[in-house]
Amino acid sequence: MYRVFDRVFTQLVKILTICSLLTLVFVIIFIFKESVVFFKAVPVLRFISGRSWNPLLAADNLSILNIILGTLYVSLVAIVLALPIGVGSALLLAGYVKGQLRVVIRGIIDVLAGIPSVVYGFIGLLVLVKFFETTLGLSSGESVLAGGILLAVMVLPYIISTCHESMEKIYREHAPSSQALGVSRSYLLRKIILPESRRSILAATVLALGRAMGETMAVMMVIGNAPIPPRLFGKCQTIPSLIALEMGMAEVGSLHYHALFASGLVLMLMLLVINLILYFLKKNILLQ
Amino acid sequence: MKRLGSLFLITLLALVVVVTGCAGTDQSPEKTNDASKPETMFKAQITFNGSSTLAPVISAIATDFIEKYTTWNKVDPSFPEENIAIYVSAGGSGAGVKAVLEETSDFGMLAREIKDEERQKLGDMREFRIGIDALTISVNPENPLSKVKDDLTTEEVKKIFAGEYKYWDEVESSLPHREIVVVIRDLGGGAHEVFQKAVMGDTQVRSDAIQAPSMGALVAKVIENKDAIGYASFGMVNQNAGKLVPLKVDGVEPTEENIVNGTYKISRPLIVVKKGELSPEQKAFMDVVTSEVGAAIIDKMGFVPVR
């Protein structure tokens, strides 16, 4: 009798797994199918290397190089800002903060990850963009930097929790011997824990990059959405915000509509590459 | 057992494919059949398709209507006791006309004039002008432009949005030398289409204009940034009276009167079309849409109702 239950359970779990896999397959097939229509009208290369995006003109004017660059630029600014802060916090949590306080701080950082992105966007619009306009004297505060700062705050929890886990493990491993040798704690953190956890720092970077590139709402509210070549204090456009901005109005079945799917496909491929990198990094960490 | 298991899986997979394949289409053939039946058949269902500008308005009126009556017999005792169902889907004005022609939906929603060829194809049709969507050229109240001159010509507006005028002092020499911040809606959207047609013509808007994700965001930007100029919808300007200043265009002030009589030109009509005669239940709903209740909702959504 138990064996029957066992089998039923195993099959059920298998079916559920296949369902989730199928969902992914269907999403990919669907996006691919919708994109192909556009690629028949405009060659792939032209689509990703052209610099103009204007849905009012002919389909030739739908190309997303500026938008791809914008996506990467905003995400990289976010990583550059968030990485030192994130790694620093993780080191502090691993080395200096103990017991109850650590649990509380980790909890607060996790809450940071749970705040809806539209709330971040709203704060960004009212505080960050306004600050750029009044204090820095920019004519319009919507900029790559505003998006980068906002995203940095949003990816911080991911960086901290990924780094903290492995740092804590390494700390526990080496703490007794370093104490026996009489080495100071900061020496241990600097010379052993930081170099030893470089792979997890890299993994955290890639994870955060993927998260930053896919973020839609918060970024859309602070970058100005102008498909021009991105500059640090200039406006830009990212792929997720482009899709969110225009999908609602694009006429179903038009080339514009299919072009939006095509840019979604490009984003998905970019994220896929990043996730593959993450996968290989993780594998190497385990092999270590 | 293993074989049985995999057989089961294959069946399940096949089922999944069949079910998902059907999901998109299983309603439309039914509707088409309904529509081709004689009008004497009572239909508890009314379908709308078309402009995404108008869709939320009809949706809001429909929600109101359904909440008030729930079943048809409460609308009119002669109707059977069936639940009211009104479906609104958005696919653009063109799709609205197409849906009516192919009889996949009862009504089409347009946020533009009906083209002559469309009129010909539709033949016997009913047209309801329920409102007007107007855009005002608005600036921040702190912008001295609104004091120096509250009137721009179409040509000036065009030059500002195209990026030919980069600084405010190029528009009017007494203004400060500050960069003009142009705020627009997404280029493919309905609001921009009106502006493009009425003002820009073939000229393109400067590519570094801020594209606001919603009309609310556009208005917020003009309120926040004192160098900003944007085309705020008439309704939104009224809701935020005093926080942003609508300018005259070619000497015509964007007032309700000027918009309705057509002197203010940056606007477009909101039209509902129906091919052939309306059934009594469809008429009952359209009566509400064109009534004072409908007008109040249209007004609330930021458009000018045609009373």
CATH class wording of the domain at 64-238 in chain A? Mainly Alpha
The coarse overall form of chain B would be elongated
User: Share of helix among residues of chain A?
Assistant: over 70%
In the CATH scheme, the class of the largest domain in chain B would be Alpha Beta
Here the CATH topology of the largest domain in chain B equals D-Maltodextrin-Binding Protein, domain 2
Provide a concise account of the structure shown.
The complex is a heterodimer of chains A (288) and B (307). With 288 residues, chain A is an all-alpha fold.
Describe this entry's structure for a reader.
Chain A has 288 residues and is mostly helical. Chain A is built from 11 helices and no strands. Chain A has a domain at 64-238: MetI-like fold. Chain A has helices spanning 2-41, 44-49, 65-95, 99-114, 117-134, 144-181, 185-196, 198-214, 217-222, 239-246, 255-287. In chain A, helix 1 crosses helix 11 (255-287), helix 4 (99-114) packs antiparallel against helix 6 and helix 6 (144-181) packs antiparallel against helix 8. The two termini of chain A are 44 Å apart. The model of chain A has no long low-confidence stretch (mean pLDDT 89). Chain B contains 15 helices and 12 strands. In chain B, the strands form 2 sheets. In chain B, strands 1, 2, 3, 4, 6, 7, 8, 9, 11 and 12 form a 10-stranded mixed sheet that branches. The longest helix of chain B is centred in the N-terminal third of the chain and has 22 residues, at 2-23. Chain B is elongated and about 70 Å long. In chain B, 39% of the residues are buried. The chains are: A mainly alpha (288), B alpha/beta (307).
List the helices and strands and how they pair.
The complex is a heterodimer of chains A (288) and B (307).
Chain A: H1 2-41, H2 44-49, H3 65-95, H4 99-114, H5 117-134, H6 144-181, H7 185-196, H8 198-214, H9 217-222, H10 239-246, H11 255-287
Chain B: H1 2-23, H2 28-36, E1 45-50, H3 55-69, H4 72-75, E2 85-90, H5 93-101, E3 107-110, H6 116-122, E4 125-139, H7 145-148, E5 151-152, H8 154-162, H9 168-171, E6 181-185, H10 190-200, E7 210-212, H11 215-224, E8 228-233, H12 234-239, E9 245-246, E10 248-249, H13 256-261, E11 267-275, H14 280-289, H15 292-300, E12 304-305
Parallel strand pairs in B: 1-2, 1-3, 5-10, 6-7, 6-8
Antiparallel strand pairs in B: 3-11, 4-8, 4-9, 4-11, 4-12
